[in-house]
Please model this.
Amino acid sequence: MVSATPIDRHADKFVHLQGVEQAFATKQGRFVALRDIDLAIAKGEFITLIGHSGCGKSTLLNLIAGLTVPTAGALICDGREIAKPGPERAVVFQNHSLLPWLTCFGNIHLAVEKVFGAKEGKARLKARTDAALALVGLAHAAAKYPHEISGGMKQRVGIARALSMEPKVLLMDEPFGALDALTRAKLQDELLKICEATRATVVMVTHDVDEAVLLADRVVMLNNGPAATIGEILPVPLARPRDRLALAADPTYLACRQAVLTFLYEKQRHPQPLAA
Amino acid sequence: MESSAPATPSETPRPALLSGKMGKEGQGSDALLRLVKAVLPPLLGLAAFVAIWYVATLSGGSGIPGPVATWQEAVKLFGDPFYRNTPNDQGIGWNVLASLQRVGIGFGIAAAVGIPLGFLIGRFDFLARMLSPIISLLRPVSPLAWLPIGLLVFKKADPAATWTLFICSIWPMILNTAAGVKQVPQDYLNVARVLALSEWQVFTRILLPAVLPAVLTGVRLSIGVAWLVIVAAEMLTGGVGIGFWVWDEWNNLNVAHILIAIGVIGIVGLLLDQGLMLLAKRFTFESR
Ligand SMILES: Nc1ncnc2c1ncn2[C@@H]1O[C@H](COP(=O)(O)OP(=O)(O)OP(=O)(O)O)[C@@H](O)[C@H]1O
Ligand SMILES: [Mg+2]
Model:
């Protein structure tokens, strides 16, 4: 299947998931979290991934990141099978995963150093790190340690770390979950700007329907687990750049929003008894 | 070093301390209260200890000197801690230093072997399962059981004592380091994988800082054990050292000196422990 992907279709199948299944060996036996996941993501596309808690969104993101290998099926990125993680597919972890012994600056600098250290001088690396911090509005917290900053600030450092790597694919697991509405809106706008500038491909997990529609080219909705599949894929045919205020009354926007809400609260109304 | 004689501080300084602080009451009786609360119980404990000691030795029948006699001996002893008459008759300062040096060497070699071994055991499950039966078997053995082996192999008392210290202080470091490596959160390793850090970078940038607190705990326990064992080892091997000194004073029937030695051993052990505790604090990060 890998070699069957023609070279000239890289652009619209930049990230390609084919028949992906992920099962875990648990004490109660084999637990199938995801199955039959087929998804082709075009280069530069912004995908949001939505579904009830525990349906397998993080699991899917981990697969694309290469942190886990699927029990069946294949994942391809840029014409190559995803075998292991790498900085070209940066991850914003759901729990931010900052290293507690490094400052905010240090956490980002580690990533910058790893990605650009071979070809750029020290001053340039520092400038990149500072720029990433400034981008998420945390220039003042550069010298602080993760335990000294709030949950939302930690998430922003995690985002800055991922963005600083200038990845081809940006994988974000509820990156704005712990943020207040204002900061969230500001970072969403920043993210859209960055993605337009860098043409990065983004897969972002979210619980927020508005966020899913506002940011996405397509909203991928997962059914409830176990053995979750893709329930619906909703294209969001809204022009970019998008203006959140204007969109609030836009019929297309409202229709998309309605579609996602319907999926979540009518078709998938009965989530699994809270498992995880 | 005068504090080594437990007799002194309890009775006199307490009123002095209180009255001294009383003057500042206007500034903050809260701070004063907290100070009193912090200082009073340990002082009372010490005072009670000395009082019991005093009463118990009042009759003099047991051969154990009372606090006053011990204190007078201690003043004499610490008046000249660094004299050297014969190899077997040296000041208490030299004896303590000799013991510390032995502990340092034995512990140092143990750290050089035990910490890397702990890392390997923590990182490679195969190695862990290979070595765990041996470690479980040897760890509970009294280190002194290893002394004859040391004597046999090294033919001399000094390296044999070092060898004993090595054996006794290696286990806490192996076990704590290995446990620390195993407990490194998967999150940190995931970050390392996404950044595609090399195995060496994973070690220096992730594992080492993440495990350092556990390593330091191991070091603290090790030094504690080594300091426990040194006295017994030196009693058996002789030479210079606080353990030998205790034994020598026993042969001289100088019980006051033995009591002083016990105080000194306790205080040095306490200082080692507190020093390492400070060091550990310095390198411990707050996780979230
Ligand atoms: N390592 C694992 N071993 C066993 N089961 C797992 C493992 N990881 C995830 N699961 C299970 O797979 C399912 C999906 O988990 P996942 O973390 O992907 O959910 P999620 O959609 O990200 O949820 P949330 O929105 O709460 O973050 C859950 O039922 C979870 O219990
Ligand atoms: Mg999740």
